[in-house]
């Protein structure tokens, strides 16, 4: 297999759209119909596919040929960071799980092999961040993975990433707090209202729900009481290591 630099970046062979636009096929914001809408699927997947086609060319293999599946198996068996994260993801779409026969990583929640493959996928991000994969690319990767297997997440989580995907495609990046606030509105039945937003600023600007604020204040007050009772040193939460992406709100 052709040599590659450690942790080669992915999804950078195609320029991002300048602005969010409507999909001419499904009528929603472009990307939001992923993966069911063909136009949305092609719009999203092009960032992954071009990296995969580059790897195929380096290995002198044809797309759809007999060697492509074998290459996908080799990519997944290789050490983490040898190939772009996009190629890891694309290889997973080409492989059927030996346990459940679904796309690898997208099977039922009780499929052990899919769970293991899905967990291994994210080791690339933690090792490659922030030089080889940006926070925005990581969020885009999470959104695509979630929407390819929405049954593996809570419906609220999947719908929140569906709302966000068109804005991730143009480079907008919500904070973890904004994602959680969007999820709260989805949980409260506000998906239709959120879906009318045409900008990331508008979507992320929905106010925090009163019951969400109350729950947060109560949680913080309890945490402070616990900290006072047990001592500052033991109760102080650990900080994430420098250079690692924040935990995914999924």
Summarize the biggest pleated sheet.
none
Please state the CA-atom Rg, rounded to the nearest Å: 20 Å
Shape: globular
Order of helices and strands: HHHHHHHHHHHH
| Assembly of the depicted chains | single chain
Question: How much is the average pLDDT?
Answer: 85
Number of helices: 12
What is the straight-line distance between the termini?
Answer: 35 Å
Query: What class do helices, strands and sheet pairing give?
Result: mainly alpha
Helix content: 40-55%
Q: Runs with pLDDT <50, length 5+? A: 214-247
Total number of β-strand segments? Answer: 0
Strand content: under 5%
Description:
The protein is an all-alpha fold and 250 residues long. The protein is 54% helix and 0% strand. It is built from twelve helices and no strands. It has helices spanning 38-58, 66-77, 85-94, 112-121, 123-128, 135-148, 155-169, 176-187, 191-194, 200-204, 210-230, 232-235. Residues 214-247 have low confidence and may be disordered.
Question: Topology of this protein?
Answer:
Elements: H1 38-58, H2 66-77, H3 85-94, H4 112-121, H5 123-128, H6 135-148, H7 155-169, H8 176-187, H9 191-194, H10 200-204, H11 210-230, H12 232-235
Helix pairs in contact: 1-3, 2-3, 6-7, 7-8
Structural key phrases:
54% helix; 250 residues; 0% strand; globular; mainly alpha
Concise structural overview:
By secondary structure, the chain is mainly alpha-helical.
């Amino acid at each position: 297999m052709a040599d590659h630099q450690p942790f080669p970046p992915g999804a950078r062979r195609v320029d991002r759209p300048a602005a969010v636009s409507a999909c001419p096929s499904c009528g929603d914001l472009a990307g939001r119909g992923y993966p069911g809408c063909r136009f949305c699927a092609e719009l999203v997947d092009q960032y992954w596919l071009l990296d995969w086609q580059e790897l195929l060319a380096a290995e002198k293999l044809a797309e759809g040929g007999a060697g492509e599946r074998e290459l996908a198996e080799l990519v997944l068996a290789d050490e983490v960071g040898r190939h772009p994260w996009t190629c890891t993801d694309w290889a997973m779409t080409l492989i059927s799980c030996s346990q459940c026969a679904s796309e690898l990583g997208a099977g039922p929640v009780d499929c052990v092999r899919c769970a293991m493959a899905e967990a291994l996928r994210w080791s690339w991000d933690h090792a490659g961040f922030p030089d080889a994969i940006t926070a925005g690319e990581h969020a885009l990767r999470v959104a695509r993975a979630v929407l390819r297997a929405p049954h593996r997440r809570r419906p609220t989580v999947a719908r929140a990433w569906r709302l966000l995907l068109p804005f991730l495609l143009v480079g907008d990046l919500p904070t973890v707090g904004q994602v959680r606030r969007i999820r709260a509105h989805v949980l409260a039945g506000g998906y239709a209202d959120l879906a009318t937003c045409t900008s990331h600023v508008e979507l992320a600007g929905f106010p925090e729900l009163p019951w969400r604020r109350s729950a947060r204040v109560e949680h913080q007050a309890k945490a402070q009481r616990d900290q006072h009772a047990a001592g500052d040193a033991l109760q102080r939460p650990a900080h994430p290591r420098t250079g690692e992406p924040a935990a995914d709100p999924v």
